[in-house]
Amino acid sequence: MYGADSIEDCYEITINAAVDVIGMDWCSLVAPSDEADVFEIKAISEAGTAEPGERVFGVEKGVAGYVYRTKETRCIDDVTGSDRAKPTDNTIKSALTIAVGDWGVFHAMSAETNTFDSRDINWAELLCMSLGTVLERHQREERLRSQNERITQLAGALSHDLRNPLQVVKARAKLAREDPDPHLDAIQDATDQMEALVDDLLAMIRSDTTNPEMEPVSLGQMIDHCWTHLDSETATLSEQTDRLVRADRRFLRQIFENLLTNAVVHSDGSVEVTVGTTADGFFVADDGPGIPSAKQNRVFDRGHSTATDGTGFGLNIVQEFAAAHGWDVSVTESKMGGARFDVTGVEFLD
Length: 350
Known about the structure:
His_kinase_dom; five-stranded mixed beta sheet; 8 helices; six-stranded antiparallel beta sheet; kinase; 2 domains
């Protein structure tokens, strides 16, 4: 198993070992689905009556849910006498359920009662412990590979996008030796752009979007915090929400910071920004110049900016951090004629 090339190979090796070595002909591996609070079959032996990919029961229910939460092995000699056991097949008479770390659970089932003894349990627990260790290693390697790819891409973007403002600084600094005043503002603008670009890239490099830390977060408090730290002397905020959401606090803060900043910096004069909630999410709208419909599908592309001093990464970060939650982001024209960004798929807790 430790030499397996993929996670799927690990599943297959585990099931084969349970069948061929321990003698558990009817067994499966299940884990919470990425899209719903149900267990999804990842692998199953030939004797099983279901198929990989099927979603069988809720993660909070039954013996599987209990074992997944508590990490306590459960062996039921006769399922007909158990209040918690609710077999998906009427022929199941006894069952063994073991946690595989934080990943999921292993099931062994039998059409006879009193099938699994202490030897079976010990061997199966050892097998599940090995699988859990290997899966953790694969997940770490995948995160590292993803981070390395991200760093390589962003390093290329950094070297490319820094050239223009850097050339401005060099050219203006040379001219400023003779007469500084006409060039200082341009130098300041260029250095501000470089600073914003570096900040955006560091935010992307440092964030592990594969493992968001979900917790209850007040939208109202988060919006107030982000607005307070925004240079918004010519902007006004209309906040229309006090909802509680389940989110990664760091990612949500970056989402609001970038959306609010986008609304302010793309307006030449004063701008009114409105933040509110919808049935399944929230929105940030403004009365600024808006985004032409022909360009709306490109605003989330990495490196694309509609402003001459934009970094081209702010809205891409919004999309990436929203996707880490399983949320979607879209842009349309606001009722005030400006831009409106909608984040949907959000889980409210109130």
